[in-house]
Amino acid sequence: MAGKTVKKDGKTWYFVLTHGKKDNGKPQQIKRRGYKTKQEAQKALNELEYSLTNGTYVKPNKMLYREYMVNHWLEDKITKVKKQTLATYKWLIVGHVLPALGDIELTKLTPMAIQKFYNQMTKDEQLTDENIQKIHTLINDSLKKAERWELVTKNPASLVDRPKAVKKEVIVWDVDEVKTFLKHGDKGSRYFIAFWIALTSGARQGEILGLRWQDVDFENNCIRITQTLSSDGKEIQPYTKTKSGTRTINLPKETMKRLKKHKQMVDREKEKAEPGTYHDMDLVVCTGNGTPTNKSNLRRAFSVAIKEAGVKKIKFHSMRHTHATLLLLQGENPKIVSERLGHATVRLTLDTYSHLLPSMQKETAEKFGKLLFNSEQDE
To answer: What are phi and psi of 46, to 5 degrees?
Structure first.
C-alpha cells in the first residue's frame, strides 16, 4: 500500500507519506508538519519519497553536534592519530567549535551556520588564520564521516569555502647576523649546541631535541634524523611526520667540532653522576642528568643568547627558515634544500620561500645575460 496526502492544519500544512513496510509487516507512514504553504509541503514530500526510493534517506535523529563530535568522531580518532595531535584536535574543538556549533542538532547543521562561525572567528582574531583553516579541516572531516555513517544526508561543510590564510612574512637573519650570533651568543650555555645545529642543518626543534649520539656520524660529518621530541616535551617518538622526514643531513666541519666538544661535556657529566641519578637516553641536547630538554628552558636560553650577540630577535623556528633562505640565496638547488628540511615536496619549499624568488630571478637573468652576451659587451 502506498499513498500521499497533503493537507492544511490551521495556519500550516502537513503531509503524510505511506512508503514500504515496518518490521511487523504493517505499512510505514511518515508524517511531517509545519509548512507555511501547500507548495512547501508538496516539495518536502517529493524529496522524501525520492530519498526513500533511492536509498539515500537518513532517519531523523536529535543527536547534537556536540555529542557526535565528542562521543563518536573524537573517539574514533584515538586509534588513528598521535596523542599530541589528538590533544590539538580537542583544544580546537572543545575550546572553539563546540561553544559555537555544539548545541545544533547534527541533521540541522547548515553551510550558513558554519560560514557564520568562520566569519566570527576571523573577526574576533582569537586564532591564527592557520588554526581557523585547521578547524575547517576538522569540521569537514567530521561531517564527511557522519555522511558515510548515514547520520546526515549531505556534508554541509563541503559547501563552505576553506577560510583563507594571509601568508606572514618570514623573519630571518642574514649571513652577518648568523656569524655574529655564533661568535658572540655563546656564554657557556649547554643549550647553545642546539642553536648551532639549527642554523647549520635546518632541522626542526623537536628533531634536534630528539637527536641521539648514535645518529651523529663524526666520520662522514652528518646527522641522521630518526626520532623527535613530542610537542609537549614528554615523549621521544619515532619520526613519522612524512616519508621524507627521516633523513640524513650533512653538516659543516665546524659544527661537527662543536658536537665533539659538546659530547665531551656530556660524557664528563655521566662519569661524575651518582649511581642511579643519570638517565642515559643517548640524547645530544639534554639536561645535566640526561633527560630531554624542557622547551621553555631552550627558549629562554635562546633569548639570552640573542641579547648577548646583539642581533634582532627571532623565534627558534626562524633559524630553520634562516638556513633555507641562505642556501637558496647562494643558488642552491631547491630540491637539495627541500631534502635537508625534510619537506614532503619541493613545491612546499618553493611555496614557503616564494618571497625570495623575485631577487633570485633577477640574479639568474643577469648571470644568463653574461653567459650569452659577455663577449659582445667586451667588444
So the answer is: -60, -40
Distance CA 271, CA 37 (A): 87
What count of other Cβ atoms lies within 10 Å of the Cβ of residue 46? 13
The DSSP string of 353-367 is TGGGHHHHHHHHHHH
CATH architecture of 175-358: Orthogonal Bundle (1.10)
CA–CA distance from 250 to each of 171, 210, 216 (Å)? 25, 17, 10
CA distance 115 to 292: 43
Q: What is the DSSP string of 124-138?
A: HT-S-HHHHHHHHHH
> What is 226-244 written as a DSSP string?
-EEE-TTSS-EEE--S-TT
Distance of CA 214 to the CA centre of its chain: 29
H/E stretch holding 182: helix 175-184
234 half-sphere exposure, CB direction, 13 A CA radius = 4
Q: With beta carbons less than 8 A apart as the criterion, state whether 192 and 185 touch.
A: yes
What are the residues whose beta carbons fall under 8 Å from the beta carbon of 227, sequence distance 6 or more? Answer: 210, 212, 236, 237, 238, 239
CA dist., res. 17 & res. 316, Å (int): 65
pLDDT, tens digit, 9 for 90 and up, residues 157-170: 999 999 987 777 77
CATH superfamily, region 65-159: Tyrosine recombinase, N-terminal domain (1.10.150.130)
Nearest to residue 251, comparing CAs of 299, 211, 304? 211
Residue 163 in grid coordinates:
577560510
Give the model confidence (pLDDT) of 232-276 as tens digits.
Answer: 777 888 765 556 678 999 999 999 999 999 999 999 999 999 998
